[in-house]
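Example 3.
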Amino acid sequence: MKVSDAIEAIVTSYGDIELVARGMVVDAAELAKAKAEPDTAEAIALALLKKYNMTAPVVVIEEVAPEVAPDTTE
Amino acid sequence: MAIPAKVLPGFSTSLWMQSAATPTPLTTANLSVWLAQVTTIVGTVANGTGTVGVAVPVEAIPAFGMDDAVASFSAAGSRQSDKIPVQAAPTSMTITSAWNPADPALLQIRADAYSGVVDRTFVVAAVEGTNTIAYAFNGRVGQFQIDAQPGAEAKCMFTIHPRGNQYGWSNN
């Protein structure tokens, strides 16, 4: 779901917006870049989305090939 | 929606509501937004009047917030039981006003009570100097009674039933 669509859904909701935000899955990268003016409904919606879409930073582990002992013929 | 971290010593409270006959209540998120939302009801200055709001002449602001609802669980042999909070209803606000048949706010509330299905945004404004903290909520008016006993001034009593989860705090 697009962050803008999720914000629109929360801002126009008459229900429990915590519950609405909790059920929305948005792209974490897009969410991290999203901004809103303070003291606006969009800022409240964005804060709720960030609260319920916490993602840990991706850690890339490179696979290191085990060292192979050189063949020795003694 | 955190309560603003501000203490108002010696503040006064007042009740405001949207003035239109069939208003569009603020959405849940907008109930926490002062600028261009709550301020249109209570006004941009303390105890001012917003463009779409009107003051309700109440004698006192009753308690508001959320009622308690718990479920008790116990295990055999345990000294104490658990009290687990469960879904709780918002507190209904029963309000007494001096009855003025020419007051537009009271007439609108009376019309809402007879309808029973009009959702309206109400705001409790706590004001100290130029500081205002607002508690905005959507609600419907239930009971409306006029008590016109000859020994005292005529009063009207009405009850506002807030809609669940539709509230927000804001400040200027």
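Residues 3 and 26 of chain A are 6 Å apart (CA to CA). Residues 3-53 of chain A form one domain.
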